[in-house]
Design goal:
The complex is a heterodimer of chains A (200) and B (105).
Chain A (H helix, E strand, L loop, with lengths): L4 H24 L3 H21 L3 H25 L12 H25 L14 H10 L3 H22 L34
Helix pairs in contact in A: 1-2, 2-3
Chain B lengths: L6 H21 L3 H25 L6 H31 L13
Helix pairs in contact in B: 1-2, 2-3
The chains are: A mainly alpha (200), B mainly alpha (105).
Chain lengths: 200, 105
């Protein structure tokens, strides 16, 4: 995009602040519904960053797939498993948090060091800007044709797998008594198979 | 008065986002939040790919094609992950990660 440098800087600072604060909220907030909506905000801000990076097609795909599909899917999952439960305290949880925080901070320091100390070969070739979408199409149907076809197979597999996994198994007859089970489509209260009775 | 944005700005932002995602992945006790953290990490990787595509490969933009594939795989992963989560919830009546310990020795 051809915008002034100062405008670009302001856009980047605002989007980066939304991304960082939003993702911290996703991880730290105790209410999972707030986390899901903040995640949508983070996805939108990342799409804005893509626009700053001359990638309008991927920004549109990000909004459609992430905000439109993944985030809605997550909200549906929250709705389906929405049970207020008091999590049992686990011993050593604070220590675990501190330790993993230390590990993540170390990883961040390592990445920052790599980013700062590497001599990047900038400026590279001039960005093609508005022709990016056509170039992506050319790539997808010439040198990336096999991954493209494999991606469609993967999506089909994921669709069938999700249906099989999320389907409620219906038995012809009751396992205990041998009576026929009524096969209505109405959701029945499930009998949890693996709940350990000691903790209930 | 300002120069163009340096490549390091985007890379540092992606590194920070990735580390936040890793921390959330390890520490979340709600299974849905674990899936959200994975999405954050995938987004961080995508920002990296797009940055390299824009700054170092502006002509061929192979990074953008990679990002499209990553988005595809992320959508498939979210669908299957949430289906697994639903069937887990149906069997255990909880989303607490500490109680999904059936395979733990």
């Amino acid at each position: 995009m051809t915008i002034a440098n100062s405008t670009e800087l302001i856009c980047f600072v605002v989007l980066a602040a939304v991304v960082v604060l939003g993702s911290l909220g996703v991880v730290l907030l105790s209410n999972i519904v707030y986390s899901a909506f903040l995640l949508g905000g983070v996805f939108m801000a990342v799409a804005g960053l893509y626009l700053l990076l001359n990638a309008s097609f991927v920004a549109a795909a990000q909004v459609l797939v992430y905000v439109g599909a993944v985030n809605v899917l997550i909200l549906f999952a929250i709705m389906l498993v929405n049970k207020r439960e008091d999590l049992k305290p686990v011993e050593g949880l604070q220590l675990r948090r501190l330790l993993s925080g230390g590990v993540c901070a170390g990883l961040l320091i390592l990445l920052v060091r790599v980013v700062v100390s590497t001599p990047w070969a900038v400026p590279g070739p001039a960005a093609i800007g508005e022709g990016a979408t056509e170039r992506i199409g050319e790539h997808l149907f010439t040198d990336y044709l096999l991954p493209f076809e494999l991606a469609s197979v993967l999506l089909l597999m994921a669709m069938i797998g999700a249906i099989v996994l999320a389907r409620r198994d219906v038995l012809e007859a009751d396992v205990g008594t041998g009576d026929a089970v009524d096969q209505g489509l109405i959701e029945k209260p499930s009998t949890p198979l693996l709940v350990d009775q000691s903790t209930r | 008065m300002f120069g163009p944005l340096p490549i390091q700005a985007f890379l540092l932002l992606a590194a920070l986002l990735f580390c936040i995602g890793v921390w959330g992945l390890i520490n979340s006790r709600n299974a849905v939040r674990v899936l959200m953290s994975i999405e954050l990490m995938l987004n961080a990787v995508n920002i990296n790919l797009m940055t390299f595509s824009s700054y170092l490969d502006g002509d061929l933009i192979r990074g953008q094609v990679f990002a499209v594939f990553v988005i595809t795989v992320a959508a498939a992963e979210a669908a299957v992950g949430l289906a697994i989560l639903l069937s887990l919830y149906r069997n255990r009546v909880t989303v607490d990660m500490e109680r999904f310990n059936l395979l733990r020795w």
